[in-house]
Amino acid sequence: MVVRIRLRLGPETQSGARSRQLLLAAASLMTPIALMAWALGIWRLAAGMKWTGEFAITQGFFSHWQVWCAVAIVVQFAAFLLSRLAGSPDKSQDAALS
Questions:
Q1: 20 to 30 A Cα–Cα from 80, which one of 4, 30, 86, 98?
Q2: How far is CA 89 from each of CA 47, 63, 73, 82, 97, rounded to the nearest angstrom?
């Protein structure tokens, strides 16, 4: 005996579209944050080699260039994961938007 279960994919609910928009918004805001972290890491590295003036944070955990580069990598990777999690809308929704 073979039992087949058919699941219908109904239209996406409003909350699903809303959560997709929020995920994409968060991902798009994280990229500039990662860029700023890269800039701070490069500034700290250049300040250590006496290429620029003194770095704004002279003591503590965030006074090292490795920390800023690691923060940039983690934030950009999180933005990538959020955009992948949001996915792309169905083809039927793409046609409706055009």
A1: 98
A2: 46, 42, 27, 15, 10
Task: Read off the DSSP letter of residue 62.
Answer: G
Contact criterion met (CB below 8 Å) for 68 and 41 = yes
Closest CA to 91 of 12, 6, 4, 2: 12
Instruction: Round to whole Å and give the CA distance between 69 and 40.
Output: 8
What number of other Cβ atoms are within 10 A of residue 69's Cβ?
17
68 burial level (CB within 10 Å; 0-12, 13-18, 19+): buried
What was the pLDDT predicted at 38?
96
Q: What is the pLDDT of residues 38-52, one digit of tens each?
A: 999 999 999 999 999
- Say how many C-beta atoms besides its own lie within 10 A of residue 55's C-beta: 18
Query: Which pTM does this prediction carry?
Result: 0.70
DSSP state of 61: G
Contact 34, 76 (CB under 8 A): yes
